[in-house]
Amino acid sequence: MQVPDTKVAELIDGELFVSPRPASPHAHAASLLGGDIVGPFHCAPGTPGMPGGWWILVEPELHFGDDVVVPDWAGWRRARLPVLRDVPFFELAPDWICEIVSPSTGRLDRSRKMRVYAREGVAHLWIVDPLVRTLEIYHLGDRLWTLEAVHAADEVVRAAPFDALELALERWWLPEEPAAP
Q: With b meaning 16 or more CB within 10 Å and e meaning fewer, what string describes 53-75?
């Protein structure tokens, strides 16, 4: 409660982790990724021209027992969460989580948080690294993560669970700065 709004606080295994707000590569990737996913999928099934069927939220607070985590993006299939209620946090594990890693958060996202997500039964996990320009796609089976694919740079991909549409990864990365003369 005493962590300033300029930080993100998470509680994992009884330990408090405080991270800075994202820098521009992270914020840019999160914004464009969200635009690519939210518009087509965050709508009711049967919406004309849209795959629909999801609730997709940016930085929702998730409470799993004593663990409190804040992924960059999370999505619930409407079949599992029919109504999105006015609540301060969620206890139902999402069907999909996306973590956009940065130098200050990558270790936590790839270790403790991945273990929490596996324990809670999150079926799909994406790890996006805007500095390396990669998308890693994981699927949960038997409480263990399987790396299904790694895509990079300017690839156009179909990534589960949102494989109904192609995603142009190049949109997610900051433009490269021109070389100095």
A: bbbbbeebbbebeebbbbbbbbb
For residue 115 the two structure tokens come to: 């273990």
Token representation of residue 53: 């069927």
Domain boundaries, the chain: 22-172
Q: Are 25 and 131 in contact (CB under 8 A)?
A: yes
Quickly state the pLDDT bin for 11 (edges 50, 70, 90): confident
DSSP state of 173: S
- Per-residue pLDDT tens for 103-112? 988 999 999 9
The domain 22-172 having CATH identifier 3.40.640.10: the answer here is no
pTM: 0.91
